[in-house]
């Protein structure tokens, strides 16, 4: 019998019984995902690998060349997606010039010792999930007053206080970072943050594989109930979806999952926990062991044309890009025409099979997705590429837009991912025994 950590108190009802509703309960105004900050030991080469593998351009930097003697940070961008890669310099560099080790940092919440400890414990990983909010100071105060654990109090950035940054703890060593801009200044948010310098176009190779924004950031935790209750209490986010081991597990392993969303459902934060008592160890438990605790499991990136994106990415899989999880069996695609023939042409279905793309749908829309293998040495963090089709609506000005979370989270695809990860883990086990 499958045993869970916290579902008895948390009372998960499962995918089929869950009724989606949106109470518009955010405690502060959330605009969008702002950026993801990866902590690493070599920002230069890590950023170049992601740039080449995902088709993201270098657009801004903060390093020794800009006067930052605290940390090196490089910003990649594709559409609205911002990936920041940060690594520490030696604290003695600043001290040798009679400066505080943090006085030149463009990210004032950076901590030398914590960054090194983070990399030692987790390897390459996400330190901060950053949200753009109306007021980072108010968001921090509201969050803390509703139970959030503070990580960095509000700090103004720039000579004219052009922006404000604050942080609260999310799970494990991951923080939720709030960013807001001072509307009374001439600072342009496209420039990212004060302290960063634009990288001239001729120095940034013009890559673009069609990725446009961050759809969701998934966390793995030891116990789901306390983590979900904690995040809901200080953000006001509502439950968008939930899955139990019976919904998405296999005959060998499983997980429980809850997806939290903000008011417009464009900021999605799924959280997973392992289940126990199965034939194989849950993949979530494997992650927690290799990551030495809770952390970001994967980042889902929206493509405007997933077929184009995958063609570009697969060309680079073995030459500095990202490898993908094994494709589902041919039987998966034999039934695809019945499930999505009114959305995808026969040619597109054939290309989905060739590229290993999963296709699922709910009553609102269709979801196309694929998952990479872990991006680093450890079997922990990976990348998801998705395209959402349908759910179109009009705003007050008559402009078309796609509703948040269109197509849900692909219950059928979730199961296929689980099977794929199981096969990948089995291949690692066989190699370790040979």
TrEMBL record:
Every VOC domain range: 32-181, 213-373
Cofactor note: Binds 1 Fe cation per subunit.
Taxonomy of the source species: Eukaryota, Viridiplantae, Streptophyta, Embryophyta, Tracheophyta
Cofactor: Fe cation
Protein family membership: Belongs to the 4HPPD family.
CDD domains hit by this protein: HPPD_C_like, HPPD_N_like
GO BP term, pick one: L-tyrosine catabolic process
Signal peptide annotation: none
Superkingdom in the source lineage: Eukaryota
Binding site for Fe cation: 216, 298, 384
PROSITE patterns from the UniProt entry: VOC
InterPro entries per the UniProt record, alphabetical: 4OHPhenylPyrv_dOase, 4OHPhenylPyrv_dOase_C, 4OHPhenylPyrv_dOase_N, Glyas_Bleomycin-R_OHBP_Dase, Glyas_Fos-R_dOase_dom, VOC_core
Metabolic or biological pathway, per its Swiss-Prot or TrEMBL entry: Cofactor biosynthesis; prenylquinone biosynthesis; Amino-acid degradation; L-phenylalanine degradation; acetoacetate and fumarate from L-phenylalanine: step 3/6
GO CC term, one of those recorded: cytoplasm
Protein name as annotated: 4-hydroxyphenylpyruvate dioxygenase
Keywords: Cytoplasm, Dioxygenase, Iron, Metal-binding, Oxidoreductase, Phenylalanine catabolism, Repeat, Tyrosine catabolism
GO molecular function: 4-hydroxyphenylpyruvate dioxygenase activity; metal ion binding
